Amino acid sequence: MDMEQSPSEALIAPLRSRRGRQHYFPTITDQDWNDWKWQLRNRVTTLEELAQLMPIPEGELPIRREILRGFRMGISPYYLSLIDADDPDDPIMRQAVPLHDEFIYRNVGEEDPLHEEELSPVPGITHRYPDRVLMVISNSCAMYCRHCTRKRLMAEDSIPDLEIDQMVDYIARTPVIRDVIVSGGDPLTCTTERLEHILQKLRAIPHVEVIRIGSRVPVTMPMRVDDELCRMLEKYHPLWINVHFNHPRECTPEAARACDRLLRAGIPLNNQSVLLRGVNDNVETMRELVHCLMKMRVRPYYLFQCDPIRGAEHLRTPVARGIEIMDKLRGYTSGLAVPTYVIDAPGGGGKIPVGPKYLVSYDVKLGKAVLRNFQGKIYEYHDPPPAGQLVFSDASPNGRGEPEAPKKKSKWVRRKNGTSASAAGSKDEPRGKKRAEPARPS
Ligand SMILES: *Cc1c(COP(=O)(O)O)cnc(C)c1O
Ligand code: SF4
Q1: What's the confidence (pLDDT) of residue 179?
Q2: How many whole angstroms separate alpha carbon 159 and alpha carbon 181?
Q3: What pLDDT is attached to residue 387?
Q4: Pocket of ligand 1 (CB under 6 A)
Q5: How far apart are alpha carbons 201 and 43 in whole angstroms?
Q6: How far is CA 234 from CA 200, 257, 276, 397, in A?
Q7: Is cis: bond before 238, omega within 30 of 0?
C-alpha cells in the first residue's frame, strides 16, 4: 500500500499465501479494488461465480442452490479474499458461504425469534427498551452473514424514503428516546449522501442525545471508510459505531485502517461478536480476537449467543460453551478486552447477560458474600455494618480495657507513629483498610 501504515496496522500479521487478493483477483486494478462501489457491485452472489473462484465439491451445487432459495448470498471481493479455499472448515467461509450443514437444518428455527416486529410502533423501528430504539434503514450488506438475525429482511428491496420519514417522525414524537441505533442491513452501504440526510434529521431532534451506527462494513468492505464518509460522520457527534468482528483473521491491515480512520473522526468503536460453531467457539480464537481488537483500539462490547434463526442452526453452540470461554477470558486478559456475554431472549425479552458465577453465595442478613476468583479460589467479603448500628465502642474491642494490637500493616503504606488501634473506625480512616470485625447477628 502506498500510504503510511498506522501503528495498529503494523501489529496485524499479513495474510498468508493461499488466499488473498492476489490469489482470487490477480487482475483487478488498485483503483477498482479500493473503490467501495466496485466492491459492492462485484459482490459474489451466484454459485456459478463462486465456483470459478473456489472448488465446490461435486453434488453440492444443487444443495447449495436450494439453500440460496431461503437466504441470499453476497460476498464482497475483499471479504472473499480472506477465505482460505483449501480449508473446508475455514472460519471466514463458514460465515459467508452456504455450506452443506445449513441445508440439513434449513427448516429449524424461527424467522424473527426476537419478536422485533411485534415491538414495532412503525415499520423499521423496534422499541424494546425504555430510552432507546433500533432503526433499520437498509437491507443491503457488503456480505450477507449466514448467521444474520435479520435474514428475514434481506430479501426485500431497499427501504423507501417514506418509511424512513415515518421512523424519524416516531422518534421525534417520543421524547423518552435518547439513544438511536441506526442499523440494518448495513447503514454504511448507503451512499454518504443518503446516510447524511438521515443523520441530519435525527440530529435535529432535541431529545436524541446519542446516535449509534451498527455496521459490519469495516470488517467486510473496509475501503468504504473513506475520508468523505469520516468528514460527514464527524458532523453528527456524539456518534458511536458498533462493529462486528468474529474472527482474528478479519483483523487485517485494511480493517485496522478503517477503524483508525473512524477513531480519528472521534467515533468510539465497540465490537459485537456472535459466538459461532466452527468459527470462534473456542478460548484460543476468542482470546486472539479480543487481543486483535484491543490493538485496533476497538473495545469488545458484546459476545452474542447465536439466535435461533432459521438457517443458522448449524452455527449455534450450547450456552455452556460461551460460559466456558468467558471463564477463560476474565482474569487471564485485560478487563477491557472482556466482552459481556449475552443471550437475546427469544420472544423479545432483550439482551440478558450470562456468564460464569463469581458470586458463590450472598447472605444479605449476615452481610457476607462468598466469591470465587478467576482461578477458582474462594474469598469472603463483608458488607459495611447497617447504618446506625454501633460497631466501634470506646471500650476496646477485646473487652479488657487494653488497646487491641494493630492489625497486620500494609507493606506499601508506612503509617505515622502514634496511630493506635483506638483510631479504628474514626472518620478519617483510609478507605479499604481492614477494620475490626463488626458485631453481627448470627
Ligand atoms: C440491542 C438492542 C438495543 C441496544 O442495546 P444496548 O444494550 O444498549 O447496546 C436497543 N434496541 C434493540 C431492539 C436491541 O436489540
Ligand atoms: S452485516 Fe449484519 S445485518 Fe448484514 S448480514 Fe451480517 S449480521 Fe446481518
Answers
A1: 98
A2: 16
A3: 78
A4: 126, 128-129, 132, 134, 181, 351
A5: 31
A6: 12, 17, 33, 62
A7: yes
* Full-model pTM: 0.86
The reported pLDDT for the residue numbered 184 is: 86
Q: What are phi and psi of 139, to 5 degrees?
A: -125, 35
- Select from 148, 181, 242 the residue to mutate for testing ligand 1; criterion: most ligand atoms less than 8 Å from CB: 181
> Residue 205 and residue 49: Cα distance in Å, rounded?
45
CA 144 to ligand 2 center in whole angstroms: 6
Task: Ligand 2: list residues with CB < 6 Å.
Answer: 141, 144-145, 148, 150, 184-186, 216
Q: What pLDDT, on the 0 to 100 scale, is given for residue 442?
A: 37
Burial degree of 423 (CB within 10 A; 0-12, 13-18, 19+): middle
3-state secondary structure of 71: coil
- In the numeric block, the cell 434463526 is attached to 309
147 CA to centre of ligand 2 in angstroms: 8
| Ligand closest in space to the Cα of 155 | 2
Task: Tell me the Ramachandran region of residue 123: left when phi exceeds 0, alpha when psi lies from -120 to 50, beta otherwise.
Answer: beta
Place of cell 503504606: 413
Domains of the chain: 7-104 (no CATH), 125-356 (3.20.20.70), 357-405 (no CATH)
And the C-alpha cell for 229?
464518509
What are the catalytic residues? 128-129, 132, 141, 145, 148, 150, 307, 344, 351
Of 129, 170, 343, the one to substitute when testing ligand 1's pocket (max ligand atoms within 8 A of C-beta) is 129
Mean pLDDT by 10 residues, the chain (442 residues): 56 58 96 98 96 90 93 97 92 96 90 90 96 96 95 80 97 98 95 98 98 98 98 98 98 98 98 98 98 98 96 96 98 98 95 98 97 98 84 51 56 54 41 43 40
Q: Whose CA is nearest to atom 3 of ligand 2?
A: 185
Angle at 194 between CA 253 and CA 160, to 5 degrees: 120
Q: Which of 116, 125, 134, 307 to mutate to test the pocket of ligand 1 (most atoms within 8 A of CB)?
A: 134
Report the distance separating Cα 92 and Cα 247, nearest Å. Answer: 8
pLDDT at 424: 40
Residue 1's pLDDT is what? 42
